[in-house]
Amino acid sequence: MVPSPQEVKDALQERLLGHLAHSDPGYQALLQEYPSRGGKRLRGLLVVYAGLAHGASLEASLWAGAALELFQNWVLIHDDIEDGSEERRGRPALHRLYPMPLALNAGDALHGEMWGLLVQGLEAGILPPPVLAEFHQVVRRTAYGQHLDLLWTLSGRLDLSPGDYFRMVAHKAAYYTAVAPLRLGALLAGQTPPSLYEEAGLKLGIAFQIMDDVLNLEGDEAYGKELAGDLYEGKRTLILIRYLQEAPPEERTRAEALLRLPREAKPEAEVRWLWERLLASGAVAWAKEEAKRLAHKALDALIPHLEQLPGRDAASHLQALLTALVERRA
């Protein structure tokens, strides 16, 4: 019988916190801080159901899912430090709770634990060797996407197009959010992932990130991150790119002057002005339509394939999770 999403979340949480147990309570608290905050466990859920849908064992699927959740957590620690973020999952970011060097070191530790978990799975014969190579792709592609994102902000670049955004997000978020879970599902079952998984997965992952950008402007208490934090951090989102392309010259000049300032120098009143202008413009609605277009195109290609997989109940859960990526119900 296929476990429910809540049962999978609970199993992933137990594995994560158990793997990060340590004899030093203070060190353990640092390592477990982000994982213990919960979250949707979206990527772990996708891996587990993709593995089961392809015919892999529950143990192998949970093992790989826990490893991808470890990846998510160490990347978030580093990302929050690099962006100067204030919040994560409804609480202060790790570097706001502890001195930044300790938070950075905790991220490094979780990175190492991710590889350690994978090696243990390989040595125990639970995970097939190609899984390790897939995790290498996850790390290298995410790092390159983060490089582009940071470079644009640090260099003050504002002459970006939607195509630039799509390229950055395809590496930074889309691959590990949607492509890797699908590919891992096939690899865990000893199969070669079809090219469809990357082609459709990138579209879904990009749509997911667009909606995350939307929620940063329109979010509520359930969002879990600093509202309008992207504006303080100077993120070059699809919404902002579209707004700058369409804004009157005087508005664009004012917005660009604000965006070139470091976070600590941005006046709150000016950030609120830009926030209100983005919400009032057609950029948010346009971005939402782009997300829906990409998601529908991806799902139209993926669903017929998923319906043919051997683990039909798991494939049904997988399909629901992939659909919820853009609806943000997962």
Low-confidence stretches: none
Write down how many β-strands occur, each being a DSSP E stretch of 2 or more residues.
2
Helix fraction, binned, reads: over 70%
SS field, number of helical segments: 15
Give the count of structural domains. 1
Q: What's the CATH superfamily, by name? A: Farnesyl Diphosphate Synthase
- What percentage of the residues does DSSP assign to strands (E)? under 5%
Quote the average pLDDT. Answer: 94
**Largest sheet, strands/sense/barrel:** 2 strands, antiparallel
CATH class, named: Mainly Alpha
Looking at the structure, what is the overall shape? globular
Strand order of the largest sheet: 1-2
Class derived from helix and strand content = mainly alpha
- What is the name of the CATH topology? Farnesyl Diphosphate Synthase
Write structural notes for this entry.
With 330 residues, the chain is an all-alpha fold. The protein has one domain: Orthogonal Bundle (Farnesyl Diphosphate Synthase), CATH 1.10.600.10. Helices cover 75% and strands 1% of the residues. The protein has helices at 5-19, 25-36, 42-54, 58-83, 94-97, 100-123, 130-154, 162-188, 195-218, 229-233, 238-246, 249-259, 268-280, 283-306, 312-327, and strands spanning 87-88, 91-92. Strand 1 (87-88) and strand 2 (91-92) form a beta hairpin. Helix 4 (58-83) packs parallel to helix 7 (130-154), helix 8 (162-188) crosses helix 9 and helix 14 packs antiparallel against helix 15 (312-327). The protein is globular.
